[in-house]
Structures are given as structure tokens and as C-alpha cells.
């Protein structure tokens, strides 16, 4: 019997989602690699790739080719379709918000910042950030298939409530997922079906940064990835185990910002003193460097600029960097002892610290942890500039990665 493309696809329909995920994360650059990774026949892999292309999700080179020096049969190259659908991604932080359109592969298609004082009513700021994203959709004319939101708070599952938005004026327990979904409906942001509004997905910003770095950035290939970072205020952490975020029983795992690194240090919002949250964030850095924060740009941008322009010339700035590295190293050493990760990725201001003096940071971790003395844990700077936004997009892409044909086949 001669197998038709439909018959081959029926045999491989269950592979559509895994195949799209492989191309999405760059792990299947050719049809030959896709065939091997899926464990199917070449014919089935071809039918699966052709179906994903017909859905407008990937491209398949019409002429097979091989890299210079490669052996074996040339293979068709696969890539995400640059003109394919996008998702709306949004991030709210202490100094405002940012909206973006993100394509498959973690590629930011368009972005719009919204610097402002975040209103105490989450519905107001989420309405503004969604309208900003809807404006990007109108300007670009791109098809939207979902929406994701990153917030600086632990987000309880499955309710989608922000339990501790410490650096925002929101009430604890704000139903951010429901509010976000309502705002999407009000702005007529579509989901997979153009006739129905998008469903909103919400999670903690550092959790989403970790997911993005694991799929598209410095965390690729790690089995036990620890991500720690400070954005505009505070410090967060996340753990990716075997490709999945570890969020605990209800979404509250890895509140690493409340590890004590200086018992006599600053009072923390949690009621303790000297936590990473208040000892290694941008405000702590600016104070240690003898600078008074200004209102013109965010604390994070002020810190980055100070390190970039004055680290080599101002001893106070170098001393502040060393102080934060020592505090951060103590916190990371404790996490290494508890979690035993195979890689650490640092984001936000912490990215600048490891880039400026990674040797000092790794030495502090090694001297203060049991596992560090046995060979050390790789400590890397993140490689995605807007990793929380890319991670928010991953939330919205996940239903499509689970079953592309179910969402788009009709």
C-alpha cells in the first residue's frame, strides 16, 4: 500500500507538538535531526514538517543541503516561520510595564515600553499594557494566538492570584490572571480563533525568565537550572528541572530573595533583615555606591549605566560591585548546597555583576559551599535581553506546542 501524506500524518499526529517544540527551541535544525529526535520514519517526519509548514508555523527548505564537512544524505533545513503567528507578552514591574509581540523561537517582533508609576489598581495598569500590546498588533497586522503576563510576585496556582506583590501597591491576592483575561477581551485581542478573545496566562517574572533562558538562552541543555536575578526592585529565583519549572505545590517555590545574607542588614518587607531582596537589588547597589537615585529612568537602568561608565574610574562603584558580589555569592552558596544545580544563570543587575567580576563571584560560591569545592558550578550571565517577556510568551505558546492541529487546524 502506498502511504499518502494524510495517512503518514495520521500516524504522526501525536508528534506534531513535540516536533514544533524541537524547532521552536532550535534543537531540530534539519528534517534529519527531527526524524532522529522523534524516533519516527523519514516519511512520517516529512509529513509532520509539511503539516507544520501548512499551518504557517515553520518553514522547510525546498532544496536539501548539508553543512560544510557534514557526512551522510543532505537534509531539508527547518526554521520557525518569520511571518508566522505571534503572541502578546507583557511584563509589569516597579517602574512601569513593557508589552511585546513574540514569535516562535523566542524572537521579539515588536515591543513598546510604558514607563509610569504603577497604579494601585491592577486593572488600570493591565488595561494600559494590554492596549499597548493591541496597538502593536494593529500596527504590524500580525496574527495573535495568545497572551502571557509576567508579574513581580509569587503567583498562586491554579487561581492565578498575585500573593505578594511587595514592590507594587497592589493588594495581596489580586486576581491578576482574571483581570488580564478581561482586559484582553475588552481590547479584543484574539486567541487561536479570531472570533474569540485570548486566554490570559500569568506567572512570576523570574520563573518566566528561567523558562525563557532554558529554552532559548544561557540555560539550554541544563538538567537542573537555577536562575537568580534582580530587576527593578527585589530579588527572585527559579529552578528548572528536566525542562519543567519547579513551582512547588501551589506555585510559591524558590522565594530566594528572602535568604538572609547579612543578619544586621536592612529591614526587609518580609519582616526579617539583610535578605538578598534588599541587599543585592539596584537600590542597594546605588546606595552602596553613594548615589541618590533619580526619577528619570528606572533604578535598574541607573545601576547598569553606573557600572558601564564608572566601574573603571570610581572606587566607590567598584567597592559597591564587590560588596554586592560577596552578598550574592553567600546566597548562591546556600542555594548550591540545597539544590545542587548543574548551572546557574544570573539576570538583571546580577548579570552585570557576573560580567564585571565573575571570578570573584565564583570564588565566593566555591569557598562557601560544599559542592563548589568539588569542582564548582558554572555561573553564567543570561543571554536574553527581555527574558521575562520571552518567558511570558512561552506561557501563551504552550497550548500550541501541546497540540498545534487542535488549535489551528480548524
From TrEMBL:
Protein family according to the UniProt entry: Belongs to the ROK (NagC/XylR) family.
Domain of life: Bacteria
Lineage: Bacteria, Bacillati, Actinomycetota, Actinomycetes, Kitasatosporales
Name of protein: ROK family protein
Alphabetized Pfam families for the sequence: ROK (PF00480)
